[in-house]
Specification:
This protein is 3% helix and 46% strand. By secondary structure, it is mainly beta. Strand 31 and strand 32 form a beta hairpin.
């Protein structure tokens, strides 16, 4: 679990030498902390529904009072539709706006939420309804749909969380939910009452966050597993199982013990939507929604995915040494150096973004693609890979000015923003920040960006 147009995922154009570099950042929502994503495709548009983390920087628990919604026609530029639903809309609830999902049926939009119940101990699942995917929403029942006293498969106080809703091709709707034990029930056509009994499902290492989708006649049930949470999945020929475990889609993400996924297809492309703690000051209770696109394997299985900073359409780059052209800048154990035959290969990929301290045309920061939220910065004139902590000092240390290559003007050198007489160079294969004077210095301080 756990106003107007705002471009919350940026597509910016930078020049490094003569090459244009386009990128879009993960997390996709950069101006607030969002978590527990669910997505719905409707009328050629994706609607993204999220929780809203409001814990303090040093908070030790979730502070979640409402839910947010965004929409996009390209998965890059997102419109912020504000906060159309909060816990206060449910008279029976007293707090904890945890994971949710919205689904459309017959022109109505049903928002399934979980929250703390006022009078029945434990978490509960409720339903809000609207005529629009962006609200306003109102409580559809005036009471909870699922309460803790209705489920007896676990003694947990919070086993009734993380609702996931699916409508099959025959019109039958299903509600899946759970923590520590997975449960489901059929929904009646009114979408606000259950049909028959509640059934438990056994899945390997199930923790929470179920999501059900269908592709080419195969049902995919993904879920958070273990701790810290990976995202695993199983498949079936039926929406009620039996389920065959297929493995892990994504290993635990950085700085967030939880994860929560949605998997959709939009305009012929599959997307995996999740959360991490990559924003500055982000963490377990200040999470951020991110998106990766992927292609199913030829046998219909889902490939293993890695969190990235580049997301849907950003550009990955390598930084090539001028005088050791078979070597590239890489991070290793959070140190920075040049190396050949980089292993793992992901350690050599960077995203060139506007400078954190100065976003003028010539200023850049260098962000790790596969360690989202981490940047190259100098520290005591050495270079390290470090998470952006949001401070002025960090931004200055991680910002550089692009200038013509000191050895070859068709290449590039990188001048420190806060020590403008110094440049990035390698010495003994390690990256350092130094003043440049000799011909050897100039060679060591000259690089080229390779897409």
């Amino acid at each position: 679990m756990k106003k107007g147009l705002v471009q919350v995922s940026l597509v910016l154009v930078l020049l490094w030498m003569s090459a244009a570099v386009c990128f879009a950042d993960n997390p996709v929502i950069g101006n607030t902390f969002t978590a527990d994503p669910a997505a719905m495709v409707y009328n050629n548009r994706v609607y993204l529904y999220t929780g809203h983390d409001e814990a303090d920087v040093n908070g030790t628990g979730y502070v979640m009072k409402d839910w947010k919604v965004y929409s996009s026609t390209d998965m890059v530029n997102w419109t912020d539709h504000g906060t159309p639903l909060s816990v206060s809309a449910f008279s029976w609830a007293k707090g904890d706006a945890w994971a949710s999902q919205v689904i459309e049926r017959n022109g109505k939009f049903y928002w399934y939420i979980c929250a703390e119940h006022k009078t029945i101990p434990g978490k509960a699942i409720g339903v809000a309804i609207s005529d629009s995917p962006t609200g306003p929403f109102r409580d559809a029942l005036g009471r909870a749909l699922i309460t803790n006293d209705m489920t007896k498969f676990s003694s947990s106080y919070w086993d009734d969380i993380d609702p996931a809703v699916f409508i099959d091709d025959d019109g039958q709707a299903y509600l899946y939910w759970g923590n520590s034990v997975l449960m489901y029930a059929k929904l009646n056509s009114d979408m606000v009452s259950i049909s028959g009994s509640i059934t438990s499902v056994s899945l390997p290492n199930f923790t929470e966050a179920p999501w059900l989708h269908k592709r080419n006649g195969i049902y995919y049930l993904s879920y958070a597993s273990g701790w810290p949470e990976s995202i695993s999945y199983a498949t079936s020929q039926s929406p009620t199982g039996p389920w065959t475990y297929r493995g892990v889609i994504m290993e635990p993400t950085a700085h967030s013990g939880t994860n929560h996924q949605a998997i959709i297809e939009f305009k012929g492309q599959a997307y995996f939507i999740y959360h991490n703690g990559a924003l500055p000051t982000g963490g377990d209770y200040r999470r951020s929604v991110a998106i990766e696109k992927f292609n199913y394997n030829s046998d219909g299985t889902i490939p293993t995915l890695q969190p990235t900073s580049t997301g849907v359409n950003g550009t990955m780059n390598r930084i090539q040494s001028y005088n050791f052209p078979n070597m590239y800048v890489r991070h290793q154990n959070y140190d920075a150096r040049i190396d050949e035959n980089v292993s793992p290969s992901t350690d050599q990929y960077w995203q060139i973004v506007p400078g954190l301290a100065n976003n003028g045309t010539d200023y850049v920061s260098i962000k790790s693609v596969y360690f989202p939220g981490y940047y190259l910065r100098h520290n005591s004139f050495d270079f390290v890979l470090e998470k952006d902590n949001g401070t002025t000092q960090f931004k200055a240390d991680a910002t550089f000015k692009k200038v013509a290559g000191l050895k070859n003007s068709s290449w590039t050198s990188l001048q420190s923003y806060n020590y403008p007489t110094m440049y990035i160079r390698h010495i003994g294969y390690e990256l350092k920040l130094q003043t440049i004077s000799t011909d050897q210095d100039k060679q060591d301080a000259t690089f080229r960006l390779v897409n």
